[in-house]
Amino acid sequence: MAFNDRFLRACRREPVDATPVWLMRQAGRYMKEYRDIRAKYDFLTMCKKPEVAAEITLQPIDALDVDAAILFADILLPFEGMGIDLEFAKGEGPVIHNPVRSMADVANVRVIDAEEATPYVAEAIKILRRELENRVPLIGFSGAPFTLASYVIEGSGSRDYRYAKAMMYEAPQAWHALMEKLAEIVTRYLKMQIAAGAQAVQMFDSWVGALNPNDYREFVMPYSKLVMDNLADEGVPRIHFANNASTLLELVSEAGGDVVGIDWRINLDEAWRRIGYDKAIQGNFDPIALFGPVESIEARVKDILDRADDRPGHIFNLGHGIHKETPVEHAKALVDAVHKLSKK
User: Fold this and answer.
1) N or C: more exposed end of the chain, with fewer CB within 10 A?
2) Kind of pairing, strands 86-89 and 93-96?
3) Which residues have C-beta within 8 Å of that of residue 169, sequence separation ≥ 6?
4) 294 in any annotated domain
5) Other CB atoms closer than 10 Å to residue 248's CB: what's the count?
6) 284 cis-preceded (ω within 30 degrees of 0)
7) Distance of CA 84 to the CA centre of its chain
8) 259: CATH
9) Is 216 a catalytic residue?
10) What is the domain extent for residue 212?
11) What is the mean pLDDT of residues 144-150?
12) How far apart are CA 339 and CA 20, in angstroms?
């Protein structure tokens, strides 16, 4: 079997024989094989058992024929080593029992040694590189400093980010001190993944759409840029995904990365023009459109490919993670349509 390097070539804006496609959260709850494993373990245990995380990572490679694997993990895994008391509460998602809301709290956040704090992540990557040899590349990932800061300050998911924004505005020194630590933690965590064998890395800024451009520029951009700059010499593509960030695209692009990931709230051609053609682009199918009929999925795939206009550097993806109730056959239809309609 020949190694499929479409994804890596597209990251470098090189010609490809067909547009590469992978799906955010492609290893997950919409697949029966995943649910069978989930019935045996709690979520954190699945992440911390390298052989289990590797098995889950591989499931969509076989089922969907995607062009890249993304490590099964969670953006919050570094928290434990940082001294953050994290629990994945049933039905509630992640809950943090000691949120960081003052300068004294920030002082207690430990800047982890990633190898010591999350050795199971490196081990899963090593297993996967052996399993994926001559197949597809492996993507490692992390949360971005802002999204991680929002979690540790809010204590859970949030709609309005009241505590995070309050710290920015009322205690900017504490905010910047926390973001400096998080930028260093994210850098170390991603460098560890690259050293273990990740062939590309993605930084998820899932919550950054909560900000206006001025606040992004002042409170977030310097730290996202620090991570991207610190990874520039690692020799692997850097994907910078900012969700709900159509108002921030130029700034996200300026913050760095070889590839900018976009959501579905903007047309791909407009987004690429604003990002700049000197960068690759990743996106941007609405994940909920996967519940539509296959003909509708194919039509939407064609529209996105037409907007990419055969320009080198397009990686097809969803505009956010795949929904847990998505029919697997519709995810497969999406992947097949991308390959069929873009085949050179």
Assistant:
1) N
2) antiparallel
3) none
4) yes
5) 23
6) yes
7) 21
8) 3.20.20.210
9) no
10) 6-342
11) 97
12) 7
Residue 89 DSSP SS3: strand
The catalytic residue among 34, 151, 161, 223 is 151
Active-site hit among 65, 74, 229, 336: 74
Q: Judge if pTM exceeds 0.85.
A: yes
In the predicted model, what is the mean pLDDT of residues 266-292? 98
pLDDT tens by residue, 218-251: 999 999 999 999 999 999 999 999 999 999 999 9
Q: Is 130 a catalytic residue?
A: no
140 in any annotated domain: yes
Return the sign of the alpha-carbon dihedral for residues 68, 322, 269, 202: negative
Quick one: pLDDT band at residue 5, thresholds 50, 70, 90? Answer: very high
* Known catalytic residue at 238: no
Place of tokens 């490679």: 61
Residue 1 lies in a domain: no
User: Is 74 noted as a catalytic residue in this protein?
Assistant: yes
Concerning whether 12 is annotated as a catalytic residue, the answer is: no
Taking residues 20-36, report their average pLDDT.
97
Pairing of strands 259-261, 138-143: unpaired
**In 10 A of CB 212, how many CB atoms?**
9
Indicate which residue of 6, 25, 101, 135 is catalytic.
25
Q: What is the pLDDT of residue 158?
A: 86
- Over the stretch 250-277, which tens digit does the pLDDT of each residue have? 999 999 999 999 999 999 999 999 999 9
